[in-house]
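Input:
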Amino acid sequence: MESDEGDEQQQEAERLPLSQRPEWSDVTPIPQDDGPNPVVPIAYKPEFSETMSYFRAVYYSDERSSRSFQLTKEAICLNPGNYTVWHFRRQIIETLHTDLQDELAFVGRIAKSNSKNYQHHRRWVAEKLGTGAVNKELQFTKKMLSLDAKNYHAWSYRQWVLQALGGWEDELDYCQILLGEDIFNNSAWNQRYFVVTRSPLLGGLIAMRDSEVNFTIEAILGNPENESPWRYLRGLYKDDTESWINDPRISSVCLKVLSTKSNYVFALSTLLDLICHGFRPSEEFREAINALNTPDSGPLDSDLGRAICRVLECVDPLRCNYWLWRKSKLPLTVSSQ
Amino acid sequence: MEPATENEWDRLSSSSSDGEEQAASDGSSSQFNRQQHVAFLMMMYESLPHHYQYQEINRITLAHFAISGLCLLGALDRVRVDKDAVSDWVLSLKAHPSNKADLTNGEFYGFHGSPSSQLHPDDNGVLMHNGSNLASTYCALAILKAVGYNFANIDSKSILTSMRNLQQHDGSFMPIHFGAEKDLRFVYCAAAICFLLEDWSGMDRERAKAYILNCQSYDGGFGLTPGSESHGGGTYCAVASLRLMGFIEDNVLSKNMSSSIIDLPLLLSWCLQRQAADGGFQGRANKPSDTCYAFWIGSVLRMLGGYNLIDKEALRGFLLTCQSQYGGFGKCPGDLPDLYHSFYGYTAFSLLEEPGLNPLCAELGMTEFSALGI
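Output:
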């Protein structure tokens, strides 16, 4: 039987060396063969070396027993990054038919303290359990994300769960909740795009576009300095630039932000991109940019694209070279009307 | 990566050139302390503190950081590194097929990450436990290049033929035969391996390209898998792979961008937006700056011909706040150093053309001299 949660913490404090455990007395540990001139040798702690030496012994003899199973747990706790140990553990699970729900619980505990190396193993267990595991897996990733809402591994695992096992019903709501907690969470925006474009329960990007544009514009107006919704807005018109420049809401939000005269860098760059793709700005835009009164910009260039670049050189100085380059790439005949 | 404790770094500071006691948290300086970095790498090369035991399975990656790092610092010929001993150690990690038939048995015959996962063949000479993998193989070849090993002596055929077993139907790669995450990192490793061995029979480039294109996100960057969030490391792997495979020409930003297979203007905008107010580069939008992205993102810009579009002074300033007084770089300002961030700190300074550092081949993550076999 798999030992329970408290055991992993106790192990550090109470660990009996394997060489002193009677149930291991018949096994000869295999020390690591580092060769005559090891490069970057690691100063291993004794319990680490010993555990791995015993692991090598049972791995070499392919002993798929319950003591090996317990040993893989100890080795994983010491070194969750060792994929060889995880692999052998899977082989033992297949042979001994150990409980898969317990296994999910074990991986969950490892994942909490080591958020990187568990996915493949967890995926393997979940696949064996099939679509019945979907709720548990969504719960698991939700828990991981509550610890770190941008955990890349948790998000990529969650995306796998949705695509392989289903459970799309509440995903858009989940994104909504996360964005409510932190509108700057780019991972949540990315997940939203994932759901909108791939969920079999929604109508696809074009069907969802209208409501998504409205949602995104509200987010922009709330925090115009937030890069994520600006990128998302552009993404809603991926491969359809024509619709993008013709949607009045896009240029309108740029104008609104410009009129506030604060946090307008993304508004300006979006407007620049619109113009480069054929959007013809009305006089309002020129007036709004004029009103910014940025230092060093001098009289506004008659070409609005060039004028925008010059403003950006001032107000986004980190990317000054880029705006100069953009300006140099502008077609010479673009005019403001 | 686990940072060491301050006790461990006290050991290092006693070897520093000025020998003065300094506050542990303040490592900033107005210059790149090349000598200190060489001393740091030599310490790591000779012995890694026990915290690195979590990286144990990937020890060859740590070796790559140390040795290729010394190479970048222009110090490899002048320190106590026995190049023959290094190449012997690396070659000892090669997985060997017992016969030709093995090459199509589904396993990969590359390099192991460490002796710990490498068990010797059984009494019949059969390698029952093959832990060799793509990432370790890339690192092995990088080290062998750094020490000037003659590649004609490498059993390329076993590597390349068996590597095909790892490529998936969608073009992605598993890193190891018994399965693991499949993502852009291993597509990159495969492409770099083929490039270094000068033989593309190890992979189906068209399929790999298709997978990479599927990884470009709506915002222009690349995620590690299709649908995942755009990320500095993913973007590097995507662009470097396409460059190595010959699908993106040199200096593409100065050429006709509209014929590119990826959305270049959007990618460029995304990359440049990754430079944050503190001058450093972030790996994803709205995340803190981190030393290593100066390489991952900086390299992408270099490969596209747009490195001069960044604010180099601001980046340099940020990186110097991540420089440790003990040598090496940490992840964020004031952090204790680790090998990973140190290596990528050195590559970043090479991109910035820091005097005394060797020029970097961005696509391969090693010095140009090593890449060219000089």
